[in-house]
Sequence to fold (526 residues):
Amino acid sequence: MATSSGGPSQGCHLAIDDLPIELAQLREGEAYWVALVDENDSSALIMQLLRGADPDARAVLICSVDPTSMLADLPPDQGPADLRTYRLSGEPLKALRALTKDLDRSLRPRGRIIIMRLSAEYFSAAGDHLEAVLCCWREWLQSNGCVLLVLAYGEPAVKAVNGMLRFSNVLSGLASLMPSGDEYDYSVLHWRNAIDAVGLTQLRLASTPQGYAVSRQRAPSAAVGNDRARFLFEAMVLEGVPVFMADDWHVFDSAAELARQAMQATAATVVFGLRSGTDLPPLARTLHALRKQRGPALKLVIREMNRTLRYQDEQLLLACGATLIVPADTPLPRFFSLLETVQGKLYARELAEDPEALIERSRAVRLRGVIGVDQFLDYLDHMLEQNEAASAAGVLVAMIPVPGLAPDLAMGQLHLRRFGDVACELGGMVYLFLFGCHPNLVEVALGNVFGIPYGEIFSDHAAYIAMDQIAAEHGRMRRLFDAQKANAPGTADATRGISVEQMTKGVPAGMGAGRQAPRLMALPLI
Fold:
């Protein structure tokens, strides 16, 4: 929760982690109501709201008992700058009716957030007079620029929520928080603020030491927002070419500006540019934050400006919320056509829980090019350790030069530009490790890393794809290298004369059997 001395758009917000912004913001001059079953849950929510308050916020906490003991656990460096506490006493209906006059007499509040935590019995006592009380409060809130958040606790409070829909003209928000197994169901019946007006929305919350947090992405709504025709572009993706800009097309100079605007969108199309691999981690974090915050209807598109992305990088972006990845060298007309293909689509993947773990797993070692055998083997060791419980981080390729061509001459045709792609010579063979290479695209990758067609300089090759295959070949390479270092007789030519059948034993059909092209796999866009 945060308040500000600015206008209604500055407002305040519920500090529930990852709560969509249109369900979190409150508007000055309005009243909001949340019903909870348990008094302890209401206390936990209050503490979370106070800890999340802006340093310059001014707040009021009203309870039916002295609330000061509840605040003992509030860290001195957290919470609003000015927090006043009051105990509501006396006959419930009279106390509720006199609330605004009591506040005027004791505090004369202006621009404050008022949190009122009371049991359901207080409001039951108001009976048919409750609507009149709410109308009186709303009129007072509007004239004083304050916000009221009512936390009503007890089983009757939750049961009465549906019946309170008749007060939607005076309550700008109505929700309930109920335990459900190890988590909580947070049901929003309606919520209005300066950003949007939202209807029925169901969320799952987890209770953490830091407070409540959204644990499950909200289900797609039938009405996915009124900004479906809106397009937000990072300037670089338009290549500086003057294009017709419709009223709902907006261009931003930086990814940061674009992300700030996208955080207000619901179903718009948001297009980021990607120049290099160094931009990948921050872009993945931005996508994850937008997808988690704004839901499945937002279309998040990445346009690759230079050849940068490996298969593993694409999977990272898709797992972090991307709807579509447009490859480099895609002509501008084709790019706009691809944007049309995602209209009306929802993000249907399981959003990654922790983007940092995926980013770390996709990060290539800052090593590339032709290296020594010992360094190559150590690098493979590292790859196997990092990906022990996952799929392989790349493909290991063993290649036999054509007769009469020395391995070092063959490697002279290598152009390894991307970090993580390394090569070495061992036993008369050339070994490549292509980081993040998709198994079905090995032939394409080999065509890209050699200056001339690789079929002209190698007679055969084998691709090791699965973790156990790479580990087995790594072990064989290590034994051969150790034998060479010990000058064991005959080891220098240990691999000469190996047949393709021996090399590809245990390798899936179509991968590395001479120059047989593998079947290409269609990659998903969503």
Observations:
- The two ends are 35 Å apart (CA to CA).
- Residues 287 and 321 are 6 Å apart (CA to CA).
- The longest strand covers residues 171-180.
- The first helix runs from residue 21 to 24.
